[in-house]
Amino acid sequence: MKFHHREGRQPTVVLVHGNSSSSAVWQPLIRCLPDQAVLSFDLRGHGESGWAEPPAYSTKDYADDIGELLDRVGIDDFILVGHSNGALSSAYFAARHQPSPKALVYIDIAPKVPQAQIDYFHARASGVSRVWTSLDKLTSTMNAADPTVPGALFMTYLADFAEAVEGGIRQKLDPQTFGAWSPADVWADLESLDIPLFLVRGETSRVLSRENAEEMQSRMPKAHFEVIDGAGHFLMLAQPESLANVIRAALSAVSE
Q1: Beta-carbon neighbour count of residue 218 at 10 Å?
Q2: Domain 3-114+181-255, CATH 3.40.50.1820 — does that match?
Q3: What residues does each domain of the chain span?
Q4: Per-residue pLDDT of the chain (256 residues; tens, 9 = 90+)
């Protein structure tokens, strides 16, 4: 697995990206936490990390990646910050693996992913290998999915997440991360946690509905719930400082 480890103040903030993404998506957020130890990495099938053969892209598989990397780098004092599919695997890891995180920041996905969202990914697996004739066109398409992110910022991120191929560029992504995606129901995992839990939704998110967010608040009343104004699903790009404030709150809760 490709990873980036920056030394700094403990505990380490471990950043777990979502589906159709890579560790590059965290760069604006990392700049907002200049003194903190940070570990970010590309999950299997994403970015610079290898593809799983045969395809293995379940929540458990991704959680195993987290554990493998923590062991490899030698980190046992950490909080987990997971976005979207990375939030599912972070919750799964936190409830089932040792050493466990000191806190969990769970970002913008329902604990049980609606079947319509799973079907959406499965149906679009063949399109993952699409060759885009320019970075501008890829950026425009991604920006339409979350217009809260400044186009130039999306372009900088995607420039890292794309590779040159004949005829243009393509995303560094195994099509089976869509086709074989098998997200677990992590309700029980979240409800079992006895650590500071921060639940985060983007104000205009198309992934975590307001209704699902309200159910999370109702079922986990001890959790901290934050809505990031001016952000959709890609909160770390649209409002990195606001998300950094949530992470600082989680770090403060650990030190209390």
Answers
A1: 8
A2: yes
A3: 3-114+181-255
A4: 999 999 999 999 999 999 999 999 999 999 999 999 999 999 999 999 999 999 999 999 999 999 999 999 999 999 999 999 999 999 999 999 989 999 999 999 999 999 999 999 999 999 999 999 999 999 999 899 899 999 999 999 999 999 999 999 999 999 999 999 999 999 999 999 999 999 999 999 999 999 999 999 999 999 999 999 999 999 999 999 999 999 999 999 998 6
DSSP code per residue over the chain: --EEEE--EEEEEEEE--TT--GGGGHHHHHT-TTEEEEEEPPTTBTTSPPPSS---BHHHHHHHHHHHHHHHT--SEEEEEETHHHHHHHHHHHH-SSPPS-EEEESS-SS--HHHHHHHHHTGGGGGPPBS-HHHHHHHHHHH-TTS-HHHHHHHHHHHEEEETTEEEESB-THHHHT-B----HHHHHH--S-EEEEEETT-SSS-HHHHHHHHHH-TTSEEEEETT--S-HHHH-HHHHHHHHHHHHHHHH-
